[in-house]
Amino acid sequence: MAKSRKSKKSRKIPRIRPIRFLRRWGIRITTLCAVVVTGVVVAHRWVTPPETYYMGQEERRLGKISYRWEDIDDVAPVMTRSIVAAEDANFCNHWGFDMNAIRDAIEDGGGRGASTLSQQTVKNTYLWHGRSWLRKALEASITPLMELAWDKRRIVEVYMNVAEFDDGVFGVGAASRHYFGVPPSKLDARQAALLAAVLPDPKDRSAKHPSDWMKKRARSIMDGAATIDRDGRADCFED
Fold it and tell me: Are 177 and 187 in contact (CB under 8 A)?
């Protein structure tokens, strides 16, 4: 009887270590999130991404949006070249980040943008708009994964299908019909350049009623697209 009481008294109650517990579950949750994100990004190499978070925001704000997915084979090649010329001339030469552009932006005091087409695709497809360190950190984490899982052709294809070209108008398929009344396969060089010139500021720029500055910008994009074609750089996203 005495021995039984003694053994009961000697049992140790396990100590709860909250820091260790939180660290363990934090690692598990982070690992699970990384696996899910990796799976989603890899799947979108072949599967069409759903409507984006930003599209949903705009649909709630406006009541409806215009959106139409187009396979890259159904888009005039001059459109893809115009997008690259306007948004990321070094697209074929980097792995998601343009280090020269980043250095130039730092030297310029942060007054210019340094986001690549790949980074913009990640932001538009998976994240939200607006400036925040969390969004930039997620963007920087997902971009190399996307570059590894997708080829350059797929990045351009997804980008031009999720980008906003006018207030509530998403994707080159909807934009070409909205502005010019033609499918994207029928876009000419000037129309493609005007659409690409809209991209940085689609709510304040119009491809249908371009300002003098827009017309000048479109001519520059046309020259850039022609140069990309002539130099053979389009091979990385057209083949």
Answer: no
Beta-strand pair 169-170/164-166: antiparallel
Tell me, letter by letter, the H, E, C secondary structure of 54-69: HHHHHHHHHCCCEECC
Burial call 173-212: b when 16+ CB within 10 Å, e when fewer: bbbbebbbeebbeebebbbbbbbbbbbeebeebbbeebee
Structure tokens given for 14: 């396990």
Question: What is the three-class DSSP state of 178?
Answer: helix
β-pair partners for 66 = 169
pLDDT of 6 over the 70 cut: no
Per-residue pLDDT of 132-172, as tens digits, reads 899 999 999 999 999 999 999 999 999 999 999 999 999 99
* Residue 189, token pair as written in the block: 């060089």
d(CA 150, CA 47) in angstroms, rounded, equals 11
What distances in angstroms separate CA 177 from CA 76, 111, 159, one per listed residue? 14, 35, 18
Provide the pLDDT for residue 54: 95
pTM for the whole thing? 0.86
Residue among 189, 188, 190, 191 nearest 178 (CA): 191
Strand order in 66-67's β-sheet?
66-67, 169-170, 164-166
Closest to 178 (Cα-Cα) out of 170, 204, 212 = 170
